[in-house]
Amino acid sequence: MEGARLKRIVREIAACERESDDEISVYPIDESPFHLIGTFPGPIHSPYENGLFKVDIVVPEGYPFHPLQMRFITRVYHPNVSSQSGAICLDILKDQWSPVYTLKSTLMSLRSLLCSPEPNDPQDAEVAKHYTSDFEGYERTARYWTEIFAKRDNEQSSVPPSDADEAQLVGLDPKHVEKFVNMGFAKSRVIEVMRRLNYRGQNIQNITDEQVTSLLSE
């Protein structure tokens, strides 16, 4: 079985190198064929366009009868990807896996997931709420994350730059945050409370200033 796993994964890595039209690439970490990094460009006409996304891939024992283990290395703002750990909620990485899937086809499915979110089956509940309550705001935030974290160079970092706007990073309108900061509340506390209330899009009309200040004063 070990020999079959090695033979197949070497063949799949070679196929990714040979079929490079879609810009999907795979390369080993520390020369191990069972621990890889996959990369692909963000889908066009999506908030992830112009970004380059890196994925950590572990080929488990029993592959291809057991699913590949994948998580995003590049930070992604998406309902089905943890904004903290990069964990992915995708059925083919769980119970819908089939031995017919390959490294390349699975990475292509991840790329498709970026432009076809499933907010009703989220990995990141806060991002899913943002998606359903303020779609335009969600897209702005996802695009902002792409600009900051998904650079097409070797300088990708999980830490936002010092000039990144804290409010924009979590999908809040900086003007709304500033309104309560001007009342004397700490910016970090305002952001924390607004995130808890999902102070975004149409949901804002259901939240009074008194509710916000009451929580801020706790």
TrEMBL record:
- In this protein, the active site sits at 89
Q: Which PANTHER family match?
A: UBIQUITIN-CONJUGATING ENZYME E2 (PTHR24068)
**Official protein name in the record:** Ubiquitin-conjugating enzyme E2 1
UBC core domain boundaries: 4-151
Q: Which keywords, in A-to-Z order, does the entry hold?
A: ATP-binding, Nucleotide-binding, Transferase, Ubl conjugation pathway
Q: Which source organism does the UniProt entry give?
A: Malassezia restricta (strain ATCC 96810 / NBRC 103918 / CBS 7877) (Seborrheic dermatitis infection agent)
Q: Which GO terms describe its molecular function?
A: ATP binding; ubiquitin conjugating enzyme activity
Per UniProt, the enzyme's principal EC class comes to: transferase
In short, the EC number is 2.3.2.23
- Going by the entry's taxonomy, the superkingdom of the source organism is recorded as Eukaryota
Q: Which family does it belong to?
A: Belongs to the ubiquitin-conjugating enzyme family.
InterPro entries in alphabetical order: UBA-like_sf, UBA_C_fun, UBC, UBQ-conjugating_AS, UBQ-conjugating_enzyme/RWD
